[in-house]
Amino acid sequence: MLAMSAGCRPDPNALPAGVDPPPPVTADSDTGGSLKGDFGPPQGEPIKAVLTQPPLVPPATGRSAPAKVIVELEVQEKEMEISDGVTYTFWTFGGTVPGSFIRVRQGDTVELHLRNAPGNKMPHNIDLHGVTGPGGGAASTFTAPGHGSQFTFKALNAGLFVYHCATAPVGMHIANGMYGLILVEPPAGMPPVDHEYYVMQGDFYTTGKYREKGHQPFDMDKAIDERPTYVLFNGREGSLTGDKALKAKTGETVRLYVGNGGPNLVTSFHVIGEIFDKVWYEGGTKYQENVQTTLIPSGGAAIMQFHLEVPGTYVMVDHSIFRAFNKGALAMLKAEGPDRKDIYSGKEVDENYVSGRALANTQAVSTAAAAAKSGALTLEQQIAAGKDLFAGTCSTCHQANGQGLPGVFPPLAGSSVLKATPKRIVQIMLHGLNGKVTVNGKDYDSVMPPMSQLSDDEVANIGTFVLNSWGNPGGRVTAAEATTERARPAPAAGGE
Ligand SMILES: [Cu+2]
């Protein structure tokens, strides 16, 4: 039968002339996993692991034999900013979110010391996904404040692994920032590249709204319902934007070690304007090529690599895109180098992406928040904070100079509407505006969407900035006025 079909028509599985057949799947084409990960007892003197804080990655181990590696981690519970003017009590491995990056080689014997800093309030432990053994170390490392514990494991599988705290309530410990990455290099190491960076996503649950100023406690109900207030890279909104953006030059290759601590969300990790040349998906041994977006499960990781050709700002997002622009999941990589108009002609368009409330270094916003808290907020501080926020919120339509766009977006500069009723700006921001409106003698019949995602102090500061700019009548908007306006029903269309 085989002979007959071969004789009658061409074999549909035959390869075209000159094309090699794929390599056969043999026992050698996989790494053997843990079965082949034990290279015998550790050699030489014990080595103290180099740990790094995000976004840095420790140097390659550079070793060709298994060693005993000592890792010392200290749990610190500390208050840090989660966004400008917003503080949160994080629980951390080593004082940062995510925790210190650990790098060892397959076959290494790792002696892990966990200290729980005196003054902490909670017991903690560590479960490393790179450990072979029940609990991944959790049971051996349960540690009360002011105490230390240790356990030893042999890193049998190569890969990029998440570690996290697994003390009850587990979800709360993870939600507070208790996770990090451990890279177990394959025996030959990772191929060298120009830059390696450490980025980890996490979802956060605060009782207040997104960007609501002041200290924000953890909200267990939101966490159980999986309704995060923030979705962040490296534990803070703006941790990798503006001056803190990752840096590289064109002609260089960048490798990202990206983890997802969760506790709840899966991430669709994407770099706007780049294509991953390689993705070691799920943090494992094999790579896929030419990938746009890679999925990283909660409690998982991936390694991506790309070569930079065109200079400019590359924005990294969770492509579940409301998380990027309305919950903070946005980071940047700045590539310097000469233009490559042959590859990309355009002007820099990152403003379009970045403006949607993702500006970094809004120092004035923090200053105003601190001043408001102490009851000493000045008009100047409100105007300065409002100016920063206007740039990320209103300027897309009304333009940075408040002139609007003829026939499309009315001017805020010298606006007759604001001259007639200055405080109407609060209502327009919170409830939007539609129907016919006449501004400086010209008619507009368009729609401004409500900007109700703004917090009350943001409304107050933007309003104050606009009223005190471009020949407008001046005055001051308070957060209390925003609270009152928010509670009122939206006015009917065509308010003129
Ligand atoms: Cu913990």
UniProtKB/TrEMBL annotation:
Give the source's domain of life in one word: Bacteria
Indicate the segments forming the Cytochrome c domain, all copies: 381-470
Q: Which GO terms describe its molecular function?
A: copper ion binding; electron transfer activity; heme binding; nitrite reductase (NO-forming) activity
Required co-factor(s) are: Cu(2+); Cu(+)
Where, by residue number, does Cu cation 1 bind?
A: H124, H129, H164, C165, M178, H319
Task: State the Pfam families in the record.
Answer: Cu-oxidase_3, Cytochrom_C
- Annotated region (Disordered) at 1-63, 476-496
Enzyme Commission identifier(s): 1.7.2.1
Query: Which keywords does this Swiss-Prot/TrEMBL entry list?
Result: Copper, Heme, Iron, Metal-binding, Oxidoreductase, Repeat
Q: Which reaction does it catalyse?
A: nitric oxide + Fe(III)-[cytochrome c] + H2O = Fe(II)-[cytochrome c] + nitrite + 2 H(+)
| Binding of Cu cation 2, residues | H173
Cofactor binding remark: Binds 1 Cu(+) ion.
The EC category is oxidoreductase
Recorded hits in SUPFAM superfamilies, A to Z, give: Cupredoxins, Cytochrome c
NCBIfam families per record? Cu_nitrite_red
Q: Which family does it belong to?
A: Belongs to the multicopper oxidase family.
Query: Subunit details for this protein?
Result: Homotrimer.
- In Swiss-Prot or TrEMBL terms, this protein is called Copper-containing nitrite reductase
The gene behind this protein is nirK
